[in-house]
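Hello Y.,

Per our agreement to keep a running log of every chain we model this quarter, I'm adding this entry. I've kept the format consistent with earlier entries: sequence first, then predicted structure.
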Amino acid sequence: MLDRMAAGSRYDEIAAELASRGVQSGKMFGMPTLKADGKAIAGLTDDGMVFKLPDPAVRERALALDGAHLFEPMAGRQMKEWVVVPQAHAKQWLSLAETALTLRASP
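Predicted structure for the entry above:
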């Protein structure tokens, strides 16, 4: 189960860490979201933190984490490039957010 206070604090730390790289906090699907150039790269869900990982190899590594799964904002609507990583792996959230940011900047 998600510890909202701890997860929110970790999200805020990541947002502050990436702010110097142009990342801003906003909202998407009603959740706190990190955006680069107006495009979402990560967000805080009820299950953990979700990351946009368009590179299949990177996405598969994230999905290999225990409890990680594809993001489904509405039942039956999986977003194939978005991976939810549970709070048990919160130490990896910054690295995944940085990867999502880097992949966003790639052509």
